[in-house]
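Standup notes
- DV: blocked on the single-chain target, sequence here:
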Amino acid sequence: MKRPLPVTILGCLFIVAGLVGLVYHLTERPLEHGIVLVSFVRLLAVVGGIFLLLGHGWARWLLIAWLAFHVGVSAFQLLSETLAHLALLVVTGYFLLRPSTTKYLQAAPE
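- DV (later): unblocked, structure below
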């Protein structure tokens, strides 16, 4: 079965977002407290994006959880950040939980 376009777009976006965030934190703030945790969270986005592109169903849940985590973290910061992350979560959830995506992820080898 052909990969749905939203899966391709979201998989690539998560890979890019994870890599850009990882490079930023490791070059601009290498001595920041919690850099290991921040790097791990960024790597989760990359892993989730790669495995989403490969058709693994668990990857969509990882990416939805990743965004939900960001909604929670941003709740302690600016309201605009929280709303932006919430909007991303809703849009991502919509596309990753659609029947066409579910059908593709069930057809792909685990």
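- Follow-up: The chain has five helices and no strands.
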